Task: structure prediction
Amino acid sequence: MADLRVQRPEQAFEPYDPTLGHGPWGVRQVAHLLSRAVGGAKPGQVDTLLHAGPFKSLDFVFQPDQEVLEAAWMGIGEPLAAAQDREKLAAWWLMKLVQDDRVTGSRLALFWHNHFATAWSKVKNGEMMFRQHVLFLEKGAGLFADLLHGIVRDPAMLRFLDNDSNRRGLPNENLARELFELFSLGVGHYTEHDIREAARALTGRTVRKGVYEFVALHHDSKAKTVFGQEIHDGDDLVQLLLSQSACPRFLIQKFWRFYVAEEIQPAWLDYLAEKWRENALDVTWLLRTLLGSRIFHDARMVGALVKSPVDFVIGTMRALGGRPDPRMLEQASARMGQALLEPPGVQGWKGGDAWIHTASWLERTKFAADVAAGKHEYLRKSPLDQLFPPSRRSSAATALEDLLRALLPVGLLPSRQRSLLATLESIQVSTPDQRFQKMAYAILCLPEYHMS
Amino acid sequence: MNPSRREFLRLSALAGAGLYLCPRALTASRNTSKDRRLVLLFLEGGNDGLNTVVPYADDLYHRARPKLGLDKSALIPLENDLGLHPQLQAWQSLWEEGQLAILQNVGYPEPNLSHFISRDIWHSGWRHTANPETGWVGRAFARIKESSLPPIALGSAEAPLLLKDAVSSGFTLIALSDLQLESPPHLPVDTAATGSLARMHAAADNAYQTAAYLRSAAEGVPAGTGYPDSSLADRLRLAARFVRAENGPPVCWMRFGGFDTHAMQDGTHRALLQQLADASAAFLRDLARDGSHEKVLLLIYSEFGRRVAENGSAGTDHGAAAPMFALGGGVRGGLHGTAPNLSQLVDGNLSMQLDFRAVFSEALRDWLGWPTKNLFDDSFAAGSAGLGFLS
Result:
């Protein structure tokens, strides 16, 4: 229920606690948390977290990485990058997302990849793209300042936005403009003059032999004026951007759209921006606050976000326990409009309603049909039998119940579920397995399934 | 939704239920402006207009562009001391035949130099609306009283704002083969859904129904021939098929990216312009085989031009006004509007002489016969005289 008491920010962002009467801790709440935090529930996870309660569930999704496992993953990814194979590296990332149960790491890297969007086809260097990915893994959950300083020294970014040829005399504005507009403040918080001065401050930051280098000879060392203040180099510029009140506000709105809902209310934004500043713009603090808050579990937030192609693809694999051909996953996501490491431009993927259109819908339907038919090892026989015991597949009602619990644990309106069952019962099938296929296809094509 | 659109959707629902409807069945309810089509081609990133239509005789041009400036000898001569970039060779014969109109210095007041804001201004047609939610093609189509396939975006993995109206995101299509899908078990649309979920329902419903129509519209129309091998050419070949199809979509949109040439511009820009000219010329030549070039207007635009002075990376930063191009059998070929004035720059950028909305208004009103009253915001007042780039 939309609870009007949680309108006030102090209440909205206090920890969600069923013992204080904030609401239940049921399948719906667990499913909502898993969907937003890690891309969806794996078999058995809903039950586990149901028993764990809200606080331990939060600890579960914020667990630190397992170093041995992480090292093994990196050992697979690095050679793919060195072989200059974008598709395989993107497939590697997707498989890691299917596997991981953590908010940070690979999943948070998705957010940063969309924020600091950098395209493989222009950088043309797998090692540099991989190093940027590692920057997101290592600094993505820490202080935003460290990440922002890191990105204006990141070889892939410097090359992508042409700063590798930004020299004194005739500066190149590309990185400077996006640093203001897309990376820290958002439109409307700077002037064209600020951009031209900032471009001068960034002169000399270049890439040599694949690594960052500052070339003093190419740096314009004269004073620059940004926001009426005198600065000298890129570090001064980043510090100045971080100190602007627009900076936490801009970032929080982006996090909100990724983790909570499309629009944040102004009072909530004011409150969060102030608290986040007090907490040194620590990203983990912000994410724990958002995902553990009362407002996160408000009925208005559940099912309010459109799943990206990546979330649709990995969420389906997580739910069904498939061992798919990674390349097929990558191609499916790319055809739906999200080729990882190849965003359409520096603004990243627009997301939200922009994912909803007929071409992407037809691609989603095609993937759903392939999954339901068990193509490309999207499904594996043995885990499926555990998930959906053959004995329960003979009845449409029980089979539907099992399938919905696995694929759409957040639930479907009772009227929609009845109507779905009636539709499915009317379809002629010759075997229970065929019924199961039709059902899986129908569920994966429900508009509700494409919301998170 | 207007009554005729509901009618169309009801007809499509029948098609979805297996009653094959010949596209001719729609002909009776059509009330078209001579079955004309509009194809919109967006050069994404900000095309360098000055190196596309080059004022080669202007000293200021060569002074601003010591590395990137193009010499007269290399250019394709037009008139008034202007020349086309050498890689636009394929346009020369179109120019000579009067099938190429160049609209000079197009833009909008108080140019915004952000790609994304500027693109949204071009696509919403609104100068001062933050985060616009509808596009001028979407709004214009929602007003017309005829049944027809909706405007369609080709080859795009994102729905352009341009085609959006209050309820629909328009139709997007990547490849014809995507239309060959077996629909999932049909469940009624949840009419109580709101927001994004309602859009998702509409997209799903619309997808199966329109797919069936598009498939039947394209069936029986042969794929065009004589196209070069490029993704842009593939999109235009698909557009040609829909142009030829009876009752095809009235508007096709596509993007062609890569024009954000901040560094080492010369080679990139050459390659892009070559692809552009070769693919678009092939499109018109293909259509001309059966006279279909007479029913198509191809408009080419970009979100802005580039800075007059080159930067230190042998590239150019974001700028303002730039030329638009109109191609097809129905244009009045030649130069329209005034040539760029390099002696009166604003912050180093060319100032606009012609509002892009005047061009689009004329295309909708005089080419498609669609009403354009109050389609754009108050910052633009359409002149009734027209620009005269259509014959």
